[in-house]
Amino acid sequence: MKKRNGPFLTCEGNYPNQMNNVIITPDILSYGQQVFVMFTGYRSVSVELGATCEIEIQRDDGLSILQTTTNFCYNSIGINCPLGPGDTQITISFPMPLTGPPTQQTPPTTNQTATPAHTYSMAFSIKNADQSYLSCVVGFVDVA
Hints:
Layout: E1 9-10, E2 18-25, E3 28-29, E4 34-43, E5 52-58, E6 64-71, H1 72-75, E7 86-95, E8 118-127, E9 133-143
């Protein structure tokens, strides 16, 4: 499953709020760049002030290239918490780290001009201020 060829899927478990139509931009994430997560959905449980987003991007070998928690209310564009039940359309932003973890790469050739993108798994979840999970999705992103 590629990021643009298949949807992000709900994580295993029970989550009261739905996240649908998850879109990650830019298409290829780069270190030091701002990332945007856009989604629609339905809230059956209110999102309270102090809610957080947990983001993890992981290589196939299990090494995390990004593992961060960010303030949902502060980093959501154009919304104010608390958010009561109802339909939702939200965009959240977070920064990629300036550098990635060490990798084993072949030495660049003289004709190589760009870093190739690699596909990694991504988990994105939202927790309320009381630490209860509201939503969680998993999918794939490309990182260069």
